[in-house]
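[job 4471] stage=fold_predict status=RUNNING
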Amino acid sequence: MRILVLNWRDPHNPEAGGAEVHLHEIMKRTVSAGHEVVQVSQAVQGLPREEEIDGLRILRHGRRNTFNWTLKPFCKKLGLQSFDLIVEDLCKLPFYSPRWSDTPVLVVVPHLFGTTAYREVALPLALYVNLLEKLIPRVYGGCRFVAISDSTRNDLVRRGIPGEDIEVVPCGIDTEIYFLDETRPIPGTILYVGRIKRYKGIHYALQALSALRERGVECRLTVLGSGDYLDRLQRMAVDMGLEGLVSFEGFVPLREKLRRLRESWVAVFPSEKEGWGLTVIEANACGTPVVASDSEGLRDSVRDGETGLLVPHGKPIRLADALQRILQSPDLRSSLSDNALRWAKSFDWESTASRMLEIMEKTASVDP
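[job 4471] inference complete, writing structure tokens
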């Protein structure tokens, strides 16, 4: 097959996250299986217009705020009829690729913004995002969909996508990178890893940390990652008098990320919405239990009471209660860690990519 992949970001984009990792892990294995993959993503300053990454031909085009509008004419110049399949990763805004040509389209959906857009961006932009999402059932009717979790599948069904058109294929994990070694977890350590966005709910982790301090619980929070909400969080930490209890360390190399995952007593993910929670499984594979919001995606990746604890989203006192339970109970932490390791072993990229390749081949064989 010759496959055209559409994703707002490519894996070398500084803002690439779990959705980009998910797509790239699948597509590089698709190339290894003998297929040709061309990916078109947003141009980024400092990155070449064309690059090969793990066998994928990456073409970068357009600007951040207009990429979805200029993508169609750019792709038409590539010769859309020369492709057997278009894979649209619908993780930012829809590109409406089924309207471009008769080439079959497979839609991969980590998650849609929904109402979270109103808490993440200015009202006009949130309305714009929601308007584009409302047209998804009409524009993509008849397309095959792949959701990365039951939560995302249910969201698509609520929006009007027929359930029989949706396959659920969970994310994998690189088991050669994420595993438990001899590192001993450090009591009192709490870790957040991920992009620093408002909807990620890290401010609730700060409020929980403040509550734990008032209770006399000895603990410290480390925040790894970058994003546009970082400055605000740092000011909040100062205003709350948490300078000595929280550290913001930005983006760190993989080796440092692994060390922090393995040595942390517990990881925290208080996000309002996720597609799945890839970092949850990465933490679990390193033996670290998780406390997370009981929200879409996270309730799929966290097995409440087994691999971690789920708490109502936006309730920092409940978040503090759950963290305190694990921080003050080595036995509970040990039990959750053992279960987390077993749970994480059920995910690998080879299985995910194999299932995705079956779906791609089936989709491409359908006459338009």
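[job 4471] summary: The first helix runs from residue 18 to 32.
[job 4471] exit 0
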